[in-house]
Design goal:
single chain; mainly alpha; 11 helices
Length: 192
Amino acid sequence: MGAKQPNVIRLGRPISPAMAEVAELVATCVQCGTCSGSCPTAPAMDYTPRQIMHMVQARMTEEVLRSRAIWLCVSCYSCTVRCPRGSPVTDVLARLRGLAIQQGYSETPGMTFTKSFLAIVRRYGRMFEPELLLRYHSRQEPLGLLGAGPVGLALLMKGKIAPLPERLAAGEGGDEVRQIFERARQQHRPAE
């Protein structure tokens, strides 16, 4: 038998251990709004970075993980650099994206793009834009491929994109890329 826990009032809904780690990162946020004022993509978001931070503090897990905002962060770190409390806003949004994928939330366009991008970089060690276009549009907007066809063909004819992917060789950083993905996989492996 463990020691008796004191009666503690918890505001909001119960949250998972992974979400509790994220909540700990935003505990010092004072809702000043500097992150939202610094964010170049905030106008396109359904919730601003400040609102996301507040929702995490309020334990609104489902709403946060279903939001488009976490997928629109471009990781420019403007919010993190300018935060007067030193809150790692960009890292919080990245963790939220990981949790949304891990917990199987319905796929948003941002999630599709991120998964496709990472799969291609993992496979080749670098980006191959034609495959990204195919992966994204096949899952989100199949008819969008028709509009992209003429542009892609023009880029191909001018030599701006390669017809076949090139793998990053081991001596050119390929091993380092594989090690990054392996470390990320090990860090995010579910506890057994």
